[in-house]
Amino acid sequence: MKILFTRLIQSPLLEQISKQYEVVMWNEENSVMPRNELLKEVADADAIFTNLTDRLDAEFFEHAKRLKVVSTMAVGFDNIDLQEATKRGIPVGHTPDVLSEAVAELALTLMFACARRVVESMQFIKENKWESWGPYLFAGQKISGAKLGIIGMGRIGKILAKQAKALNMDVIYTNRRRDEKAEKELNVEYRELDSLLKESDYVVMLTPASNETYHMMGYREFSLMKATSIFVNVSRGSTVDEAGLYQILRENKIFAAGLDVFEVEPIQQDHPLLSLDNVIALPHIGSATKETRDKMVEIALKNILNGLNNERLLHTVNK
Ligand code: DGY
């Protein structure tokens, strides 16, 4: 049986796997397997180890005649046509939980970096502009005592809420469904989106990409936020209308935005958002700690082995 890896993966499990299975792996570190190669290689593959940069749509599944399992090294699976997979009886595995702390930590990193203008300040030094200490030099915003609004109270949202509580923040959230258990356990309060935006000093987007969440933050929603507030997105770029975000930041109607995800990735250098001083942009590194990525690989590999052995995947999104 053949396992197709669309990325170069390292894992101690691979040695054993390659004794039992034919392993075909894209071998360039930081590039995506070209579409034509993907469609060609998947034609006789029994399993695929994929990730958020591959588009597994109807055309892909048309080519994947022998596929028994799809395993994505990610918690998000908006790049996979679940209906097509399910129609063909193919389980789709993903890697939740192990990345929740890392993604929550990156949300905090962006909150702090935006609040204290870390990137601008460093640039200032590099450009040799620092002449003396100044009473309001790069004065930013405080985190302790501020109010955090979380959009999407799933696994990552709950961990972020705990971390924020340890920083003495007030936490409110909005979600598709109200979560009274989380409210009690974490001491957080539910709000409708508009109220959350009006009240929060920090707004963190954690909701998954879907038709319902497409562009859920646009100019109207950003206008509700305080002029001193900070917006952070560590979920998916499609949840934000970037034109609206650009406009609001340009007008200085919010303080800053910290973005790990974009509507089109990689974001192009000439994208208007990158021209703004009040934007911090990162290359989708939410779960990128070595330990987390190792665990994601391990779970994704186990999902494949379980799928090939007709066993239940550790984490599946369609079965
Ligand atoms: C995910 O797992 O969906 C993340 O975006 C990858 O870092």
What is the fold's blueprint, element by element?
Blueprint: E1 2-5, H1 13-20, E2 22-25, H2 35-42, E3 47-50, H3 58-63, E4 69-72, H4 82-87, E5 92-93, H5 100-115, H6 118-126, E6 147-151, H7 155-166, E7 170-174, H8 180-186, E8 189-190, H9 193-199, E9 202-205, H10 219-224, E10 230-233, H11 242-250, E11 256-259, E12 279-281, H12 290-308
The protein binds (2R)-2,3-dihydroxypropanoic acid.
(2R)-2,3-dihydroxypropanoic acid is lined by residues 52, 74-76, 99, 286-287.
Domain D-isomer specific 2-hydroxyacid dehydrogenase NAD-binding: 108-286
Family: Belongs to the D-isomer specific 2-hydroxyacid dehydrogenase family.
Protein name: 2-ketogluconate reductase
How would you describe the overall organization of this protein?
The protein is of the alpha/beta class. The protein has 2 domains: 2-96 and 290-308, Rossmann fold (3-Layer(aba) Sandwich), CATH 3.40.50; 100-281, Rossmann fold, CATH 3.40.50.720. It is 35% helix and 14% strand. The protein contains 12 helices and 12 strands. It has helices at residues 13-20, 35-42, 58-63, 82-87, 100-115, 118-126, 155-166, 180-186, 193-199, 219-224, 242-250, 290-308, and strands at residues 2-5, 22-25, 47-50, 69-72, 92-93, 147-151, 170-174, 189-190, 202-205, 230-233, 256-259, 279-281. The protein has a 7-stranded parallel β-sheet, sandwiched between helices. Strands 2-1-3-4-5 form a 5-stranded parallel β-sheet. Strand 6, helix 7 (155-166) and strand 7 form a beta-alpha-beta unit. Helix 5 packs across helix 7 (155-166). The longest helix has 19 residues, at 290-308. The chain is globular, with a radius of gyration of 21 Å. It starts with a strand and ends in an 11-residue tail after the last helix. The model has no long low-confidence stretch (mean pLDDT 98).
